[in-house]
Structure formats: C-alpha cells, structure tokens
Amino acid sequence: MRIRAVPGGRLQGSIRVAGDKSIAHRWLILASTASSRSRLTGLPSGLDVLSTASSLANLTVKARPALDLWARNVSSWVEGGGSTWNDTLAGVSYGTLEVEGEGRDGLVEPSSRLDCGNSGTSMRLLAGLLAAAPFTTELTGDTSLRSRPMERVASPLRSMGATVRTTGGHAPISVTGERLVGIEHRTEVPSAQVKGAVLLAGVCASGETVVLESASTRDHTERAFEALGAPVRRDGRRVGISRFQHEGFGAAVPGDPSSAAFVVAAAALTGSEVTIEGVGLNPTRLHFLEVLSRMGVTTETSVVGEELGEPVGSIHVLSRDALHATTVDADELPLVIDEVPVLAMLGTHAPTETRFLGASELRVKESNRLMALVEGIRTLGGQAAAEADDLVIAGGGLRGGAASSGGDHRLAMAFAVGALAGERPSEVEGMEAAAVSFPDFVGTLRSLGASIEVIG
Questions:
Q1: Share of residues in the chain with pLDDT > 90 (%)
Q2: pLDDT for 243-259, tens place per residue?
C-alpha cells in the first residue's frame, strides 16, 4: 500500500492505540500455561501477536480451541482491513480471549514446526517457555526473522540444561526441554526478550535464576510474575526468580506506548494537542518522552489504574514552539530502541544535528534499520548518515520525496509521520507493514485530522 502525506494540517482529539504487543506476548504465554482459566481483554490484532497465539495453540490442549478461534478471527479481520476498535465476528470480540490453562506441565509436542512469522519476541520467549518441556520443538520464521541473532537466547538456556540448536546462530532453532537448573546470566546485549526467556525458563528450574542486565530494559515479564505472586527479587538491574506455577488471572492489555509514540510525534511535528487514553505508562517504556522533552516537546502523563502490575493512564501532547536537536547516548538507547525511527524523523526537522550513539542493535531488527533510516531520510529530502554504529541526522527539515518501508512496520509509520511536516507532499510505499503492530495507523492519524491519502 502506498500513501501520500500532505503537510500543513493540525491534529486534534483523543484516541486510543492498540494493545501493547510486548505485554500481549507475555500475557498470552502466561494465560496458556496457568493452572486454571484466564481472561484477557484488549489484545492487539497485530501480526506478531498472532504468531504467539498460533504457536501456543499448537502447544496446548485445553487452551487450543480458544486460541485457534481467536487467531483465525483476527487473521481474517486484519486481512479484511477492519478498524481497530469494537469489531466482532459471530459475536466474538477480537480483543477478548478466555483460555483454560493446564499449567506448564500441560504443554504438548506440536505436530509441526512453529512459525513465528516476523516476531523475534515470539521466538525468543517461546524458546524460554519450551526449555523445560519434555519434547523437541523447531521454531522458524520469515526471511527477516531467520536473519536475526538467536545465540543470545540459546546460550543461557543451554547453560540451564536445555538442548538448543540454532542455524549458524540464527533461526530455525530447535529446543529440546530438559530438567533445568538456575543460573546467573549476565546479558552482553541489553534485551528484554532474552531476559524474559530466561525468567520463563527460571520458573521451571531448581534453585534461583538471576539475570544481570548490562543496561535497563522493559520489565513486563517480572511485573506480571510479581502480580501473580511469584518469588521475584529485584535490585536495580538484577532480577531473580525461583520455581513457581501461577493460577489463572484476568487483565486488560494497556495501549502500546511504542505505538503511542508515533501519534505523539505526529502531534509534535504539526504543532498540535492530542491525548492518547488507556495507554501503558510503565516507566521502562516512557524514556522516549524524556528524549522528546529535550527536543522541546512537552507532554503530560496521568496514571488512572493498574493491570497485572502495569500502570495505565493517558499521555497528553501540548503544543511546542520549536524543535531542538539532541543526542541519545549508547546507555539510554536500549530504552528507546523501538522509538528510534520516529525520534529520528523528529530530528530531521530540528535546526541542527541529532545523534543516536551505539545503535548497532538497529542493524538486526525487522530490517537493517540503521541503514534503512539513512536511506529513507535521504529519499524524503533530508540528510542523514551512519558513522560506524552511530546514526547522525543533519536536521534542517525534509524537502519531500518518496520512501519505502522495506517491510518494516516502524519505518513505515516513521516515514509517514516525518512527511507530515515536510516542505511538500511525500509518498511512502509499503504502509501495509504497519499491521504488524498498529493495524489502523493511517486511519487513526486521519481521524485526528492528518491529510493522508491511500493512492495504491
């Protein structure tokens, strides 16, 4: 799908974004392996979450019918281009799922390999879940996922006792569950996915399992375990967990702050005031607001409740006078890794140079985001460069042009947002990629007043 973004408009209103897919992956796994019934609402329909749900359907018995039905319904809905909110099929809400868990001992050997699509979160978290399952499972994915590093999760799981084989350090990977022992694992590359996988394996291991992070990452896994009563010990970047079987639970998935970041940026670039309601306000996910503050964008957050340990509330974007350049240091980059593309687009409209230091992890995302960002900014009429592992944005604005997402959902949305403040209209090819995390992204911006036309 190709869109044409026309600059000059202002956004106004209040919206909700789709449920947080990082949380949804984890809660789906926990619901499917609980010892009794669980009910989840607000589940997002993105393709990555579908990969986790479909994989879990192949690993369970009692939970399988509900997971299968939900996955089929959402798949049909996404392919049909439904809107994000309040859609139903045969009276079943897409965002609601009730599953009957049988505990982790109820996992069964799948009849075929598990296809994780484009979802690295699915593959890495499921590897942790399967590390103690007494059978062999092969996990694969699309071309992009098969190019991403998997030894970072395979290595600690092997140390715990599981048999994990990768394909030259990548997917497909094979996991044979064994009796696990607790370990102390120090992460070389900050990764909430690896931490989550080790903790999911740790609740099946004898003794305590500890993860020591080289830099802070999102903490959804440990928050959920804490809320479910697990023996979790947290001290700064050190997280420990011991053997535990959780019961069923009910929770509503908060709106995705990473998706909200694109709406926040669109409002900032167009000098608009917008409110995003019902969004997750987990502090480990909001560092992008600190970066935006340094760039001259004022926002206000308000916590109104909590779901399974996750604070929920609203983000209000206030008008701003002018954008400022900034530098994102290597030690804070992991806290905005998903927001770098859209922060970079704000940087193109700052008057001077914006830098993202130590951004090598961008090379192994859904695409080589480091180089794809440089190329996309240039084709949209801006200036950017990769200096070793640093992303350097020259600033000065975008003249307008045409860019391709290359199949990367965050690049598709970032280029569209950046184009809203260009000197002239721009086109973005491959907007269908946004369905991975934000299925109604274009419709949401248009509902707020953005001038975006679908042209092909």
A1: 85
A2: 999 999 999 999 999 99
* Nearest-5° Cα angle at 269, 331 to 24: 55
Q: Quick count: other Cβ atoms within 10 Å of Cβ 265?
A: 27
Catalytic residue among 20, 48, 256, 338: 338
CA dist., res. 56 & res. 263, Å (int): 32
CB 203 within 8 A of CB 239: no
Question: With 0-12 CB in 10 A as exposed, 13-18 as middle and 19+ as buried, what is 199?
Answer: buried
DSSP H or E segment with residue 125 = helix 120-130
Beta strands in 9-71 (DSSP E): 12-16, 37-41
**Comparing C-alpha atoms, which of 146, 203, 155 is closest to residue 180?**
203
Tell me the CA end-to-end span of the chain in Å, nearest whole number: 5
CA 228 to chain centre: 22
Q: Which domains does the chain have, with CATH numbers?
A: 2-18+254-454 (3.65.10.10), 21-250 (3.65.10.10)
Sign (positive/negative) of CA torsion 144, 45, 137, 180?
positive
- DSSP class of residue 397 equals -
Residue 129 in 3-state DSSP? helix
Residues 417 and 11 sit within 8 Å (Cβ to Cβ) = no
Q: What are phi and psi of 73, to 5 degrees?
A: -65, -45
In the predicted structure, residue 122 carries a pLDDT above the cut 70: yes
Q: So what's the pLDDT on residue 363? A: 83
Band (pLDDT 50/70/90 cuts) for residue 182 is very high
Neighbour-count burial for 174-185, b at 16+ CB within 10 Å, e otherwise: bbebbebebbeb
Give, in order, the Cα–Cα distances in Å from 51 to each of 4, 22, 120.
Answer: 30, 13, 10
338 among known catalytic residues: yes
